[in-house]
DNA sequence: CTATTATAGACATACGTATGCAACAACGAG
DNA sequence: CTCGTTGTTGCATACGTATGTCTATAATAG
């Protein structure tokens, strides 16, 4: 039924191993034979079997990307550049989305014969990195890291962005500043909170406990937090959000409550997703080079696969504030 | 290095085939032996090799989803339910994004040892369906179909939705109606255009050529089309868009041009993406059960895989208008 | 007590490719 | 004329699992 390298070998009048080598452009095969083999392969419509190749070579040239919650607008923007970068280096991307982060997930990653894994949604207490390390399966942290195992990583450094945001908030007269932060077990939420608090502290501003809302990085969290804040007797004048998706939820809540942004309340995001710059949104947010970060993660992983003993490389990307229309002035 | 079924067999004191059967709960193995094997597997941390399994059984339980343009907001909403549905039926999803639609793509799909493919971005002149059919690799059309090969499909029937939209547009006094349509080589663009024109014709309205703009299903198209329309000496009072993403672009263009929606121009979308119902957007659009459609596509494919000789099933999903705030009344 | 059958497991082999090693031819140097 | 060298190909085998067939043991019937 299916055409194998043996069939090609027979037609070309060579042995099966020669076909294998010829089609991968092995220098040990003469140009004349290569040409003959290619012709034969073409004529039979031969397509090498990934399974056979994987079994024999022990490598699949396949890399997993582990995500939770694909519905979140943030992740599609990772997938596309990851795909491209891996492809340009001869690897394929295999998407894995899992609600939980447990042993079953780790097993699935391992059994799939992946050459490596990009972990994009690790929590600081994830078990997956441990399992992967035990198996010797290379991986890289993207965006978030886990405390359990040290590994190559590509993350954002929120310091500059939060610094600029704090500066502008202060200059524009904001003193009552609230924050809608991500889950406490994610490195991103922790780092952004620290960066924000330190930056505000430089202007003598602190965020009281009742001005802090925590939850998953989704619109519902932004919505819930903003509703809570707006209903307070003394609402904040500005809300800094853990990311853009949360900020979109905040904008929605403000609109629903009849509060004008930015004259009633200012909102700041983080990530600068494409939608943030849409004329109907114009979100003031903190930006960084997401595509470059994805590409870096892919590169780090491939280098790790190809030379496993390299020193660990932790790569941080600068961030900066992008002023648009959702951060106003207090008179 | 890696633990194989042979290692487990040795530890459990049985043969390798018995391990294979025991772990897959084959009735030919006694419960006592199964238990012993499971214990041994657990103790060694055995994880079966996908490649070995694929090579031996000829099946991978892996299904490809072929997309172009992951950046488009529409597609992530397909991926998540597809993932879930396939997983619940014991299959894994393998994402393939390709800019083009050519032989190379088909070859990649074939070599990957997929059990089947979901084609989500076929054009009517796609070559991939031909190649897959020649190879005997099962596939299903999702959303769009191709004329070249008949196959199972799950698509939207735009008739009712467009009918309701035309009705409301007419009742609210719109007579100059424009359309921003998708690429002419996609079945979705064609079907929606036909449905729209027929529905408007019932009210004696036709869309003149200069009120038609065509382009890819993205925000840029919506933006460009709307700019063009708004600059006309006699601009349309309403714009029907090929999908929501296009409509978002139209909203952006209107905002940039200082045109109020809906008092200056009305906008109608198609798909009812989650963002369409956001308070800051509130897009009037045509809705259908996208998740069910995805699940249907997955089910059709799996059934095709498991019984290849079934008759072809073409599944169409009803659509309906969802009124929100972007379709106004002409006084 | 023997013949028959059911049951559980072993044995052999297949799947398709990659790779170390041996074989061979052609050739030039000594 | 011999020997080493270089370049090209074939041979043998490994990768890890699944499955058809065969065998040993136990259970059952006559």
What do you see in this structure?
Two copies of one chain form a homodimer. With 331 residues, chain A is an alpha/beta fold. The first copy, chain A, folds into three domains: 5-48, 434 Repressor (Amino-terminal Domain) (Orthogonal Bundle); 62-155 and 290-317, Rossmann fold; 159-287, Rossmann fold, CATH 3.40.50.2300. Chain A has helices spanning 5-12, 16-23, 31-44, 50-57, 76-88, 103-111, 128-135, 159-171, 187-201, 219-230, 244-257, 290-306; strands at residues 62-67, 92-97, 116-119, 139-142, 153-156, 177-181, 212-214, 238-241, 266-270, 284-287, 314-317, 320-322. Chain A has a six-stranded parallel sheet with strand order 2-1-3-4-5-11, with helices on both faces. In chain A, strand 3 (116-119), helix 7 (128-135) and strand 4 (139-142) form a beta-alpha-beta unit. In chain A, helix 6 (103-111) runs parallel beside helix 7. The first copy, chain A, starts with a helix and ends in a 9-residue tail after the last strand. The model of chain A has no long low-confidence stretch (mean pLDDT 94). The first copy, chain A, binds a DNA duplex (30 and 30 nucleotides) through residues 2, 4-6, 14-21, 24, 28-30, 33, 48-49, 51-58.
């Amino acid at each position: 039924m299916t055409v194998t390298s043996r069939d090609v070998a027979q037609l070309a009048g060579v042995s099966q191993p020669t076909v294998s080598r010829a089609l991968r452009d092995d220098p040990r095969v003469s140009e004349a034979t290569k040409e003959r083999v290619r012709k034969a392969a073409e004529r039979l419509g031969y397509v090498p079997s990934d399974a056979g190749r994987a079994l024999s070579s022990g490598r699949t040239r396949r890399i997993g990307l582990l995500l939770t919650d694909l519905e979140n607008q943030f992740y599609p923007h990772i997938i596309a550049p990851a795909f491209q970068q891996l492809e340009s280096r001869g690897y394929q991307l295999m998407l894995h989305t899992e609600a939980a982060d447990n042993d079953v997930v780790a097993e699935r990653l391992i059994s799939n014969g992946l050459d490596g894994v990009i972990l994009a949604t690790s929590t600081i207490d994830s078990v997956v990195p441990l399992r992967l390390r035990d198996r010797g399966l290379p991986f890289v942290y993207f965006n978030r890291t886990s405390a359990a195992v040290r590994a190559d990583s590509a993350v954002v450094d929120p310091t500059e962005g939060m610094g600029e945001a704090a500066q502008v908030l202060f200059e524009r007269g904001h003193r009552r500043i609230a924050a809608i932060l991500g889950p406490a077990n994610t490195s991103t939420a922790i780092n952004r909170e620290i960066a924000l608090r330190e930056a505000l502290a430089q202007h003598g501003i602190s965020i009281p406990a009742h001005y802090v809302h925590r939850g998953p990085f989704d619109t519902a969290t932004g919505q819930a937090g903003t509703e809570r804040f707006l209903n307070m007797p003394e609402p904040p004048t500005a809300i800094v959000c853990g990311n853009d998706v949360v900020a979109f939820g905040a904008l929605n809540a403000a609109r629903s409550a009849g509060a004008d942004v930015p004259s009633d309340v200012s909102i700041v995001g983080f990530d600068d997703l494409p939608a943030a710059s849409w004329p109907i949104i114009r979100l003031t947010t903190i930006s960084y080079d997401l595509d470059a970060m994805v590409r870096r993660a892919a590169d780090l992983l491939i280098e790790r696969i190809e030379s496993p003993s390299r020193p660990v490389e932790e790569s941080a990307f600068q961030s900066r504030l992008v002023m648009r229309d959702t951060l106003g002035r207090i008179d």
